């Protein structure tokens, strides 16, 4: 995880190394109850990223998720002052 100040904004980047999300599925990861790996039987409900998305949208923060160099990178851009 890294943070950096860029003008009047703070950029938070979280990188999950040695993983990727199929390109055709990456646009669905913020949907409620969506799971990339349907075969997983863990305790997850598929609501985590949907809740994160709802919080970020409520606060008008920009965000993105993308595959980069054998990693999944999640970026949040938020203002330094309101």
Tell me what the structure shows.
The protein is mainly beta and 82 residues long. Helices cover 13% and strands 37% of the residues. It is built from one helix and four strands; from the N terminus they run ββαββ. It has a four-stranded antiparallel beta sheet, with helices on one face. It is globular. The protein starts with a strand and ends with a strand.
Shape: globular
The count of DSSP E runs of length 2 or more, i.e. the number of strands, is 4
Largest β-sheet summary: 4 strands, antiparallel
Specify Rg, calculated over alpha carbons.
14 Å
Low-confidence stretches: none
Query: Given the structure, what is the number of helices?
Result: 1
| Ends distance | 24 Å
Fraction of residues in H or I helices = 10-25%
Sheet/helix structural class: mainly beta
Brief rundown of the structure:
The protein is 13% helix and 37% strand. It is mainly beta and 82 residues long.
Kindly list the characteristics that best describe this protein.
1 helix, globular, 82 residues
List the helices and strands and how they pair.
Blueprint lengths: L1 E5 L2 E9 L30 H11 L3 E7 L2 E9 L3
Antiparallel strand pairs: 1-2, 2-4, 3-4
């Amino acid at each position: 995880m890294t943070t950096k100040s860029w003008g009047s904004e703070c950029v938070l980047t979280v990188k999950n190394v040695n993983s990727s999300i199929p390109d055709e599925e990456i646009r669905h990861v913020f949907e409620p109850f969506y799971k990339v790996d349907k075969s997983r039987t863990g305790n997850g409900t598929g609501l985590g990223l949907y809740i994160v998305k709802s919080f970020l949208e409520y606060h008008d923060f920009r965000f993105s998720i993308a595959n980069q160099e054998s990693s999944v990178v999640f970026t949040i851009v938020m203002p330094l002052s309101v």
